Amino acid sequence: MSSSLTKGLRRSTSRPSGRRASAKAAKRVVKTKSARPKAKRASVTKASARKPAKIKAAKKAAASRKPVPKSKKATPKPAARKSASTQQKKVAVSRVKKTQKLAAVRAIRPAPIAPSPPRTPTQDESAALGAFERAHKEFSRGRFAEARNQFRVLLDKYSQVSEVAARSRTYLAIAESRLRTESMLPRDADSLYDRGVIELNRGEYVAAQEMFERALKREPEAAHIHYGLAATRARLGSIDLALQSLQRALDLQPSLRVRAQHDHDLNPLRNDPDFDRLIFSHPS
Description:
- This protein is mainly α.
- The protein has helices at residues 2-35, 38-64, 78-108, 123-140, 144-157, 162-184, 189-202, 205-218, 223-236, 239-252, 256-261, 273-280.
- Among the domains are: 123-183; 186-280, CATH 1.25.40.10.
- The protein is elongated.
């Protein structure tokens, strides 16, 4: 009996609570239905239908745009553009001012000074130059005694002409040294020839040429001296003069052709056709 009573009590107590809950739920539904009119539902559905279309259009537009790299700066604001234009104007104004200053400086520059005409030499200077040329001509010819005398006279008369006097003193010293060496040289042609051969064998070709030339002045018809001079000139590279001396030596003594065929001092002449004509065209 107690269990059936308790079951009946439980059923009776649980039913009113379920009815109250159902009544509350019904009231909420009525309230929500009354709060949402039919017209608003239609607008909400339309708005919800438009949103996906707008989102798709925005995505397409974003895909079509080129991505802006991070390193690039954003477009300057109008204030920054204005400042850049003002800076450009300032630079242009400064350039114009610089050009104006340069033009003013160029206008102030004095005209270039024309070079002064060359000074005409005085009477003493022109006379000293003429005397120097005459003395130098004797010096170049090897007439050292005459050149020495002329340089001495020049220094006595025109010592005040400094440039000419300085050059004259130099050539006077050279002429006197040459005359001293000439006084120490042998006098006869054979001794001069022997001295020339010694210098030729030592490789002092200029000194050997001078010895042979001095010997020829004392004995101009000596074939062996002409031959030595030809060998010396060949060593110095004076091909034409060497062939002339060799021609003269062979004319005076034809037997020198045999010596010339094997002489090493005449090697610079062997490529010349005149050498072959002189040595090999005539019978030995």
